[in-house]
Structures are given as structure tokens and as C-alpha cells.
Amino acid sequence: MNATFHPLLRGLHWLMALLILSMLFIGVSMISDLSPRHSLLVNVHKLIGLALLVLVVVRIGVRVFVGSPALPGDLPSAQRWAAKASHLVLYGMMLAMPLLGWGMLSAGGYPLPLQLPALLPQDIRVYALLRQAHGWLAYLLFATVLLHLAAALVHGLIRRDGVLRSMWSGRVN
Q: Is the pLDDT of residue 31 over 60?
């Protein structure tokens, strides 16, 4: 295995990080902003969500095809397990969030971006359930991103074991 992630994976990682953080802030703004720009925020949220769904599928395919760097040999087994589990959780949430949004819009009878087909029949009860799940998963995603960032900083600033450097193309130390 290489000491760093494939450049395409690094690019996808940072592009998706930027888009996910944007989505979280747009989502919060949509909930609290009922001004005329509300519909613009909703449309941007939908389009970025769709882009993220495509990007995560591409990212999973690239990661399966090119692999990822090995974790440091001295990393305790519990931390090794936590690293792998947290990545699976992140990938799962990156898939689930846009799919929940798509299903929610379908069940609510709302227009879908790019004339996508509805995933579910219109049903207000399903819409309410999916909307609540989408909101709670957004909070969980934000918390997981913060933990991911904290772990990366521990690797880069405290352990200095190359894990952060494997995803960061610039200087770490």
C-alpha cells in the first residue's frame, strides 16, 4: 500500500468535506430562514445533496479499486477498529443523508431536482418520519465529522504518525 491516499481520493475527500459542511450550514439556515431566499437555499441544498450522492458512490468505487494506506503498525487494536468503524459510519451517513432527503421529498410530494423520479409514493406520515430522520442524522453526521477531525488532528499533531499526512497534500509538521 502507498503511504498516502490516491490523489483522486484526496480530491474527493476535500471536495466532499467542503460540500458536507456547506450542506450542514445551509440546512440550519433553511430551517431558521423564511425570507425570500428560503427557496434558493432549498434548491441549492437539493442540488448539493444530489452531487454528494454521486460523489460518495464514485468515492467508494475508487477506494475499493485503489485501496487506502495502512494504519500505523503501533496503533492499538481498539483504535484500529475505531478508525475502520468510523469510516464505515461516515460512508453510511454520506449515502443515507441524500437518500433520506430524496425519499423525504418524494413522500412529501415536493419537486425533485433534475426531474428525478420519486423514490416513494406520496405519504405525509412517511414524509414526517423521514424529515425527522434526516434532521437527526444531520446532527449525528456533524458530530461524527467533528470526531473525525479530532482524530486527524491527534494523528497529525500529537502522534505525528503520517495518518493526517496521508490525506493532506501540504505540510503537517
A: yes
